[in-house]
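Support case: user asked for a sample of complex input and structure output to validate their parser. Sending the pair below.
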Amino acid sequence: MKANIARIFEEVYEKESDSIFRFSLVRVSNREQALDITQETFLRLWSSLLEQKEIKNNRAFLFTIAHHLIIDWYRKKKSLSLDTMIYKIEEAEYYEVGESMGNSIELEAEGRYLLEKINELDPSARTPVYLRFVEDLSPKEISDILGISANAASVRINRGLAELRKKAGYEDDENLKDN
Amino acid sequence: MENKKTRKLNDAVREMAQIKMTTDEKKRMLENILNPSPLLMKQPIKSPYKISYFISSFYQKRSLYYLSIAGLFIIIGSGSVIASQKSLPGDLLYPLKVNVVEPIHSALIFSPEQKAEYESSLAARRLTEAESLADQSKLDLPKEQKINSLLESHTQALYKAIDESRKKDPAEANGDDTIVTNFEATMNAHAQVLDILNKQRGKNKKENQTISENARDNAHFLRASQEKEVGATPEQYTKKKEDVQASIDSANTDLNNTRSDESSIGKTVIDNTGKIIEEAKKSLKEADEDNRKGNSQNAHSKLLDSESSAKEAKIFLKAGLKFK
């Protein structure tokens, strides 16, 4: 039984570990920390599989856990006041990311440019756009990961993509279609 | 044909997709997960703001927030109401009990008879509170005044309820008598307990005796206000006498079943109960004499005295033996 679970886990790990690591690294800009978050994310998947919890979508499940771990990491790192948190945790937490973003991530010119432009977006649109555009997740999966409605996720993606078109000069690019 | 911007974009996405773990990192991580060290298992990344996050997310979901606040008020409110029932004068919740809970309860009783019984029970409750305070030597002047004032208002409410009951059904005179004798017996019994407690706790002077005096006065006032000018019919007298005799027998049984109590208060209570029962018997005898002489009004009055004394003995014995 455990061998079977381990086999399923290893398949998922092989397929998704780089995506989760990338998602974490792009957000925390620290390789060691991104590795820690990735490991913790998969550790929780492993525990859930051992406890035979029902997981409908492994990919969405992993991104959801990683997303929450990153939020926790930011809270730990930044001494956010309760007022700031009440204002809006999700939006407040990414403001500082852009400053150090890119410097610690090894990327070639185009990749770095796109990442910089994504990080110039409105904070509420950054993660939805990244997940949709880079990780190719559906609006429904993104809504589950961020804990918002599918409609709100679509709005953030569309608004973010429109902004990205302007900022990155992709305005006439058909590949950046609305979702 | 793929234009330049599309190519650039695809290159950018492809480049970003190259962000990966090294083979070593990947292998080590998998081993760590499948064979975790106890240290690793016990140290997940913990949120230092779990409680704050819970509060803030709660706050953001407005409907849940308001519902929870309302629920909290109900829980705290009902909890306070229950907690207030055992409060004593001077306690934080006592005003809630006497100014909110009890008046609301009273207002929700529409039958004058039931209202009279409820007010009578409240008056008894005030005296029980006074006894508890006296026992703890906490019955100071402000508390005494508060209890006296409440006692006065309960008696007035009781008087009013009896009056309404009488207007509603003048034929139910015996019912009124029972309420009156119950009240008289309760007031006198608790007044006597209070006097004993005050004496035992070293309050030999006139301190702390206004409540017992007030209770006796109220009992006397109510009894006097309900005295009838016309005596009972022979049938009514016979039936009432049987009831009174049953009450005396019951008080006697209670006294006989009471174990001897070596405490000073216990001894006094048992002795005094015997005396009260003797008074009840004496009044019953006098009632019979008056009845034989044809003085039905006096006979009825003595019968009520006897009934009141018999009930008083029972209440006094029970209330007095709670204290040592």
